[in-house]
Structure prediction request, 286 residues.
Amino acid sequence: MYRYVFIAATALSFAACTSEEINTSSQGEVALEVNTDISGTQTRASGTQWGTNDEIGISTVTGTATDYTNRAYRWNGSSFEAVAENIYFQSAEEVTFNAYYPYTADATYTDVSTSAENQKADTQPKIDFLYATGATASKADPTVSFTGENAFQHCMSQITLNFFEGNNVDLSSSFSYTLSGLKLQGSFDTATGTATADEVTPAELTLSLSENNSHVILFPQAASTIGLTVTVNAQSYSANLTPSSGKLEAGYNYTWNVTVSNTGLDISEATIQDWEDGGTTNIIIN
Prediction:
């Protein structure tokens, strides 16, 4: 997905530029223009579109006279606009930028939970951390492009479970599943884009479903074996998920097709795919 983000010349007035226009403040400062692209078919866990009031934080890499840290820009439904002050070039030097999502005022994420309360459609974006870096711009060429190699990347890991009915099992009503052996707390470094699981005791993550697929976002971590228990009509079926790399890696999606039958579980080897194209592994629960 491609987004055009415009950082305007004043805090109250925003206008698109042609290739021949350079936006300046009343003091002659040149304003930054930003192109963004998010790697993968999904920009966020909750969908392929930015949501109204989504915010990103943009900073300059130190070393030039243009020095800004954690400037907030908010999606208004059609473009990003500065929440407070804009970014202006202070010299002719080339400037390198980085950005992250979602914005927070102190640029700090610690003790972040990936437990059930943050796995809902309206709360998952809070933990779907994105990061972009390496893009450059200057007063002479004021468009910074977070695209290509510099596009926003997913910093967390994702597990997708697709459930199918097997012999003598009815999934038309609500059911639940539990993942066990996972660290559900961690931190996100907005300066480097690194998401890290805390050294905490592995815990269980239980979700109730009214539909037959589920996506969970987790901190990257070692995970040679992940317990899976599916409970249907008070009957539980258990087995293990085994990522082939022995870990959940940043930016990757792990998809299992789970067939639930009334005689047990049979899980095939997992495949690891980039988040932009979730590979699938079939799981037969007999």
The chain is about 0% helix and 45% strand. The CA atoms of residues 103 and 284 lie 41 Å apart.
